């Protein structure tokens, strides 16, 4: 479920308090250095919602309350699209402009030559036909103003407009994307990504969201762009920009931390305290057959600061807990590594589950129990996008077996934003 809301998404005004349980969370962490893992950021709310709840997060997890509200319509007009330049029929060298500074190689080609297929871009990059300052480049490399890009002769694929004839496989892909759609307008698409579907391609990957978006290329040759990522086994809200204008605006919102995200997870044991802040440094560690994020020290090579707020929503005895998570930063595998770090790993996590002699309760599937539940982000043309994803089938099964109620009050909405 999703909605477009034209209302300010302000940061919470955190008040220090020594009052009783039920008051707003206290921002009592020390300044200037990370706090200890699991540091408590507030006391458990009472049975009713606090009177001064945070604007923009009106009770995640209860679609009924969202549906009863009315919001003003927001005019959405697509930006005018310039005519596409002709494709080069021979080798040419172009210079990266100031407006193109920082663009990925593949996005640079898409912007310069609308209608160029994703597969064609990947092929010329893989074969080394495209060069940056005389050197081979990867499609994910970032360009800098003034660099010279050698572009080989290009072949334009026929644009796949809304009325274009699609193959049977392409139509199935379009239908699959439509079934995943939580919200859509002229600029933005929010998908409910299922668990097991990769966001981008990798070694041996034949089907992924980025490749599927190719069938949504418009009559001008412009295709939707990913704005952020989710792990392959994580389900839930995935934001996609349908225009270059929207991609720039939404990427800026993530960069400036204007996006608000809430995740749900089922973890082993019950975290204590039940509401807390995890602040560590994370760094990638390459292993023989894989790579994982490990806890690092400030100053270590490749170490980045990562902050996560968590709140226990409901428990099943003392063996399992439904935890709501709000990441402040967006590091790779941040939530999975942080929950494992405080000894409450996410159920079904093949990389980070580290509980010895722990048995999965009967009836629960051994799959990652992590959902990108909700995203609230400024819309590129005003107002806000607010999308909520339902529990995926394997998590819904676990909630039913454990007697967890998905419409319970979620205390994470009162956590700070930094």
Can you give a write-up of this model?
This protein is of the alpha+beta class and 418 residues long. Among the domains are: 92-151, Structural Genomics Hypothetical 15.5 Kd Protein In mrcA-pckA Intergenic Region, Chain A, CATH 3.10.290; 168-255, 2-Layer Sandwich (Pseudouridine synthase). Helix content is 17%, strand content 23%. It is built from eight helices and 16 strands. It has helices at 63-67, 105-112, 118-126, 168-180, 209-212, 244-255, 334-341, 393-402; strands at 2-5, 92-95, 131-132, 135-136, 148-151, 181-184, 188-193, 225-226, 235-241, 260-268, 275-286, 291-296, 304-316, 320-327, 370-378, 384-388. Strands 1, 6, 7, 8, 9, 10, 11, 12, 13, 14, 15 and 16 form a twelve-stranded mixed beta sheet that branches. Strands 2-5-3-4 form a four-stranded antiparallel beta sheet, with no helix packed on it. A hairpin with a 3-residue loop joins strand 6 and strand 7. The radius of gyration is 23 Å and the shape is globular. Mean pLDDT is 80; it is low at 6-38, 43-56 and 58-82.
